[in-house]
Amino acid sequence: MTTLIKGRKVVFKNKPTATGFETYSINDCLIATRGTSEASRPQITIHLPKKDPRDVVNSWVEHDGFDWHVTAVTAVQMNENTPTRWDRYAIAERIKAL
Question: What digits encode the pLDDT tens for the residues 32-48?
């Protein structure tokens, strides 16, 4: 039996631009928890599809009932070494309201 990995649509909100803020969706993303003892806040990774090269740093996403701030994106991986549909990922931190 073959199990297919299903991506989901992620809405990236309030990304600062030179003229204000922008909100857009990227289809076929994967979201996973990111566990590291050095992290000061809970983190997730958002695996981004090869077909969408947009920069998502400094945008906000909603996941699992929380708001997450995208703080970084990895470099694009070599196409030959990434046989899946995703070739980079964003790192987002959960921000708690004061």
Answer: 998 777 777 899 999 99
